[in-house]
Amino acid sequence: MGSGGGIPAAHLLSSSAAKPIPRIGFGTAEFPFSASDVKQSVLQAIESGYRHFDTAALYLSEKPLGDAVVEALRLGLIQSRDDLFITSKLWCTDAHCDRVLPALRKTLQNLGMEYVDLYLIHWPVSLKPGEQELPVKKEDLLPMDLRSVWAAMEECQELGIAKSIGVSNFTCKKLQELLSVARIPPAVNQVEMNPVWQQKKLREYCGDKGIHITAYSPLGAKGTPWGSSQVMDCQVLTEIAENKGKTFAQICLRWIHEQGVSVLIKSFNKERMKENLQIFDWRLSPEELEKISQIPQRRGGSLGSAFISEEGPYKSLMELWDGEL
Fold first, then answer.
1. Known catalytic residue at 59
2. Residue 82 gets which letter from DSSP?
3. Which of 151, 211, 230, 323 is deepest in the core (most CB within 10 A)?
4. pLDDT digits over 278-294, tens only?
5. 80 DSSP assignment
6. Pick the catalytic residue: 50, 59, 115, 205?
């Protein structure tokens, strides 16, 4: 598995310069955000076969990710940086038209790279320029000028320093608004998705518009401020895993894979890293898929609550998610 050749890929659709996005990616957001274990974990992940790495300005993981890539090259684990697919994200404090390009240049400086394969708007909201931190200051929340911010994202792609551009945490309604002003459509929408939040409406919309979906929180992100235990507590998934002789995580990841979606997983445990890649040589049965389709649906935890304020652009989670709860 060390070559990474065992992970299928899904092509991005918006750019002829884009290379395929591996179906399984490795997340680097360790909460509370810290750089401490990232370099060694990324090295282990590369050795295990991962080739897609997801980071963000907010996570403090860009520099250790870049350091790990340098070390992987030195050790001969990869032949060149081009063997990898690197995603990073624009934080809300830089979601202003004049700050997008400098923010990406800083990301590239942190990574020690000349380009990212994919650059995403992290959330559909802006904050007053300042420190990148959670929780955000409610008084700093601002509506995003989507037209001008996206025009700056398009410039990043045209300069070649982002091979593709996209968004994260966008609803159907927000994507529709973006598509009405975009010259270059978003290649990807990275969103929460798992068997307890299957995103059927959003997947259908993105499929119609040629937007690839990448799923995060495939196990519900239990133990984080934005996650919940509702996936891990799901008895249907537990029974399927036991009957199939697979891990709980493998059932969730295989289900996402069968929806034609790429998925980000984060485990700094070496054995789990390997187990999470072992989902490509078996399938869920029609009966198992039917059982999963019947699981009651609910968006996880309080994702997005940091951006809710009576004085801000979103007064409620219902507004932020446009009723998609």
1. yes
2. G
3. 211
4. 999 999 999 999 999 99
5. -
6. 59
